[in-house]
């Protein structure tokens, strides 16, 4: 029968069930009194993720993450693995941001990089590390050959040690993302040659590439010449397909070429001279004696001068101009009988011959005739065209004699004073044999070469280890045509063109000077004479030197006013490491307040990373204009004077500093965290702590970043991150410096730089910083 009892259990079963429930309740109460073990996760070593382009340096942060664990340690031994085909450790500076653990007493750090693709780091402290913190950063350079993509950085092995008890650490892997980089713009230096001849002669002017770093796919050149003196006969070249159109009435010729194989047969890249084409001129029968330029009217206009690579991309171009010198009719000697006493005879017409003479000049330790320590010879040659050239060769014997006398006199400066009282020498060649420079360097002797057109001061350390003969070729640009060509080039250069009017308001002072040498990348002090005696002291203080380097780069330097060659004549002194044409200029009107410049190709490159030395230069321009420069002795100080001065100013002002190893790391990209610290120092920590982005919790610069964020000078991304280890870009740099300077954006004017349009996010800031 079915059970109709509504209860699940019968009365007989209720009593034992109650007993069982009572026991279970008591057991659960007992266990509830026992402390329960909390679930925990083992601490890990976290490796960060950064990005950069080939050639960039990046810092990969290494962080200890406690994961809420109470574990502590004072000694860590960690090995990291990386792909050595993509990354290479920065030699001597493999571990950076060591200030990240400066709060832990007695920190010591050793590293082992002997195994390719690995770095082993041992860090010890006297104070226990018991909470999450950033330990240090691995400093890599992304190899130039690296392809775009992610490259992992892993914890290969590791131990965290407390009182000899090692805890095997696990790692959260990081990576370096290699960004794709646009093909660099090629550079070419085109040289228009020179020739000379008499009226009626045919002469050939060669147009060559003096240097070329990428293959040429096409070129077009429009040359101007004086049709009253020169007429084009034909154009020839070493490659097929050259076309030209000459107009001997207007004095203009257009020469063009393109690779008919569509980039398969370009003109190859080369550091050696290559001929593009040759123009044969005929000198007009009535041409007067003199020099006739062969030049490009405006090399900045593509319709006058264009060179493209194999992808049809316009290259960066630099041109040196040529000329044809008409030397006049030959001198016909009197008729001389072939046999004395006979009525007949023959005569010949001989061209004028070159003549030379030797001039002895003293090598002195002072600027007077009584301080002679040696002597050398000037060979002055007068060519058939009447031009005079000087050659000086300071032999090892002459150098040795000078050194002995200098040591006896207690001097370390040898001066060679090369006279040109009549201002008739057109060029000077000075040769310094390797033995001579080695002797001077070993004895720490400085060499001064002093002429009426320029003075060169070669310090002993620049002469050290040269290993080959050195030459200096000095050519003053005396003629009006040459001076006008230089002036026209400067007139169009972006370094001095005013953005508001697109013009350059300047005056060329004195004669430009071309100096060439094979001693590159070593500092030499140059002093140019200031020949204008009507300049006021205020104008002298505003003089600058416009430099057109032979590699196509240009710069504008201020220099220092000194006494030229010890006389009462003023001169302007500056330091260079590479040479070409130097022109003293005086800028008119008000001085620009721009603190950053673009590049000679008219670009600003807003996404390019800012190097630490470049940031030091920016800071020295806008925040330390009246500060005293106390030289700072970092072990990796650059050679260039401007860089050393900028680093010293930024350091003594307290804005920047080097690492514990005494390095400034000038060529390393500055990070956003480092920039935040600099801004915090400028603001003197005035802002209160602000919100904390998600990626700075354990960062060494956390407090400075918070204050700078609170000030509004810097900001976080849309994802709420600060990206402290990313490199600071040029656009970011001017944006935040403008905020510190309270410089308002300039939005209404036309773009100054061709790669920063009005739609660029930093357009107004870049415009304001460039004016």
**What kind of assembly state do the chains in view correspond to?**
single chain
Provide the β-strand percentage band: 25-35%
Shape: globular
Low-confidence stretches: 1-14, 27-39, 330-351
Number of helical segments with 4 or more residues = 12
Helix content: 10-25%
**Structural class label:** alpha+beta
Biggest β-sheet strands, sense, barrel: 15 strands, mixed
Number of strands: 40
- Give the strand order, joined by hyphens, for the main sheet: 37-36-40-34-33-30-28-27-26-29-31-32-35-39-38
Structural account:
By secondary structure, the chain is of the alpha+beta class. It contains 12 helices and 40 strands. The strands form 6 sheets. Strands 37-36-40-34-33-30-28-27-26-29-31-32-35-39-38 form a 15-stranded mixed sheet. Strand 10 (149-162) and strand 11 (165-168) form a beta hairpin. Helix 9 crosses helix 10 (702-711) and helix 11 packs across helix 12 (763-770). The protein is globular and about 100 Å long.
